[in-house]
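Continuing the batch. This is chain 6 of the set; chains 1 through 5 are on the previous pages. Same settings as before, nothing changed between runs. Recording input and output for traceability.
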Amino acid sequence: MSRLSPEQLARGIAAYSSGNHAQAVALAAREFGSRAVIVMPEDTPQSKMDATAGYGAEIVTYDRYTGNRVAIGIALAEERGLALIPPYEHPHVMAGQGTAALELIEESGSFDTIVVPIGGGGLLAGSATAAKGLDRRIRVVGVEPELGNDTQLSLAAGHRVSIPVPRTIADGQAAETPGELTFSVNQKLVDDVVLVTEDEIRAAMRFAFERLKIVLEPSGATSLAAVLHGGFSGRVGVILSGGNISPERFAELLG
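Output for chain 6:
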């Protein structure tokens, strides 16, 4: 958002997201004195919608099983004259997301492996770029829910493939296909993609809560789930990417 002109900021920002990106854009727009309109699935957890609206954004909902959020976002931006900031399909967004791995390595030293959740692939692509840029020996492993393995299938096929909209508790990772730009980066830099089950995600959420005193949403816990159940060795860095979950939903999933 800092790369936008004053004129663009004055007109406002559009974005589409089910959680982290929605809140980040809403907050950043407020801090820049702009306004944000966010396209979100109508079944987005209420806590995520409330947080996004709480930062001052207008929310436009759609049905994730019948609608195309990219098309809706583009049409909305054009109709209202807004600058569109996608959740992963842009070099600046990927670079910003990659600072998670950059800061992890700068603060904790190098790792044998870094494990990163995958939604559209921006966090993974940015993290892989940062990690490999600092130390080419670091293995970068992406993690998807077993019920939403579009990136794993795409990497195996050598091209992007689409799957039905995933029905997983990890709603922030319910992508149908990887981003075109993110996939091109991940093809070159990512060493492996592993899958975790719904029960493994729940177990990781419980572990983080009981042992680490950290509240994670399902999408933020998949990387930890992979490490707890995947037999990693050496020094492993784990990116936990979100805690956007209500107390009620958290208790429901772990009850």
